[in-house]
TrEMBL record:
Organism in which the protein naturally occurs: Streptococcus lutetiensis 033
UniProt GO molecular function: 5-formyltetrahydrofolate cyclo-ligase activity; ATP binding; metal ion binding
Binding site for ATP: K3, V4, A5, L6, R7, R129, I130, G131, Y132, G133, A134, G135, Y136, Y137
Similarity field: Belongs to the 5-formyltetrahydrofolate cyclo-ligase family.
Protein name: 5-formyltetrahydrofolate cyclo-ligase
InterPro entries, per database record: FTHF_cligase, FTHF_cligase-like_sf, NagB/RpiA_transferase-like
Length: 175
């Protein structure tokens, strides 16, 4: 199946998943992530502010803050540019895409990020992902030297050939 059709199929499946079951999987995925050496060794973690049908990143953000970690979230710009800024719940704006992002523009240097929690729609067995099609993460990760991790549901596992510009996630937890 081509990436566009696969993306559409998986998103439809995600939107109709059972909410109670999703909450249980989110908690189990959080436990998996917290137990990972990538999380335990990280001081600065970049994550994303999720759609309601995606993994609930609010769980990770709250726990990481309790653990004294610095949390960053993405801000997108035209022409596929993305930066990560400090997370401040009181300083977010909603994008035309329907996601929340920082109102400010103070980027944290890529070299200061220990771990990036990468979103995605579909993932193949090698950690390559299908995103939402804009390529922000593949461009950002192309020269990123830290660790990458993703948390997904079983329905997000897919078979597809990555494109030459795709960047694989190092560790993918699924439930």
């Amino acid at each position: 199946m081509e990436k566009v059709a696969l993306r559409k199929s998986i998103i439809t499946h995600l939107k109709y998943q059972d909410r109670k079951e999703k909450a249980l999987k989110d908690k189990a995925l959080l436990d998996d992530l917290l137990a990972s050496s990538a999380y335990q060794k990280a001081d600065t973690i970049a994550t994303y502010l999720a759609f309601d049908f995606e993994y609930n990143t609010e769980l990770l953000i709250k726990q990481a803050q309790k653990d004294g970690k610095t949390i960053l979230v993405p801000k997108t710009h035209p022409h596929g540019k993305m930066i990560f800024c400090l997370y401040d719940v009181d300083n977010l704006v909603k994008t035309s895409f329907g996601l929340w992002e920082p109102a400010g523009d103070q980027a944290v240097d890529k070299s200061k990020i220990d771990l990036i929690h990468v979103p995605g729609v579909g993932f193949n067995p090698d950690g390559f992902r299908i995103g939402y099609g804009a390529g922000y993460y593949d461009r950002y990760l192309a020269d990123y030297k830290g660790k990458t991790i993703s948390t997904i549901y079983e329905c997000q596992k897919a078979e597809f050939q990555p494109d030459s510009h795709d960047v694989a996630v190092m560790e993918v937890f699924s439930r």
